[in-house]
Design goal:
This protein is α/β, with parallel strands linked by helices and 204 residues long. The protein contains 8 helices and 6 strands; from the N terminus they run βααβαβαβαβαβαα. The strands form 2 sheets. The protein has a 4-stranded parallel beta sheet with strand order 3-4-5-6. Strands 1-2 form a two-stranded parallel ribbon. Helix 4 links the parallel strand 3 and strand 4.
Length: 204
């Protein structure tokens, strides 16, 4: 049985927190927070509900509790998207997301990424080298990691593709949905928007 360790990075949690008063104290951010406050609360509740019904979670874990919480596990896996990018996770999580706190237990990385190998600190590289198995989601990260760590690094797919459409549909509330979802990683592209609008119009 697989279990997800319920550890939350404070830096990541802050990005999704429903708050009216912004940390940067800018008027523009304050107005944006006011407009999105209710929507943020609803979104967070939906994420919490999804986790509760679909993911087997451990007890809430603090950074100092991780070694104790992982005692029953045979293998511990870290991952995935941007998990080794300190600008996103925070430098205080170097040892957490590379499983450096584990002793005498099998540890691996699945579909890990950092955006760029330059985002990985020297300490993280040392920790990654000590993993028993390293898999990443980008070829551009696999090659430099192999050179730095001196071991094989495999490229694997995003975890969302490990289950098929039928499994995902089981998790969707059964209702008619005529929404087209468009997702950009590196900024909005006009050509992609044109294609999306064409598909949207064609399928109503």
């Amino acid at each position: 049985t697989a279990e997800t360790i319920d550890y939350r990075s404070e830096k990541i949690e802050q990005q999704y927190k429903a708050s009216i008063f912004p940390e940067n104290k800018k008027l523009k951010s304050f107005i944006s927070n006011c407009l999105n406050y209710r929507k943020t609360i609803i979104r967070n509740r939906k994420f919490d509900a999804f986790r509760e019904h679909n993911i087997q979670m451990s007890q809430a874990a603090h950074i100092d509790d991780l070694d104790e919480i992982t005692v029953p596990y045979d293998v511990v896996i870290c991952g995935s998207d941007q998990v080794w990018n300190e600008t996103i996770t925070g430098p205080e999580n170097e040892d957490v997301y590379t499983l450096a706190f584990l002793n005498g237990k099998a540890k691996a990385a699945y579909a890990a990424s950092a955006g760029n190998v330059k985002s990985i600190s020297k300490n993280m590289l040392t920790n990654i080298k000590n993993l028993d198995l390293i898999t990443v989601r980008e070829q551009s990260l696999a090659e430099p990691l192999e050179q730095n760590c001196g071991k094989d690094v495999s490229v694997v797919c995003d975890p969302v593709f490990l289950i098929d459409e039928a499994e995902w549909l089981k998790m969707i509330t059964p209702k008619k949905c005529n929404t087209l979802f468009l997702y950009f990683v590196d900024g909005v592209r006009d050509e992609t928007c044109k294609i999306a609008k064409y598909i949207s119009k064609k399928r109503k």
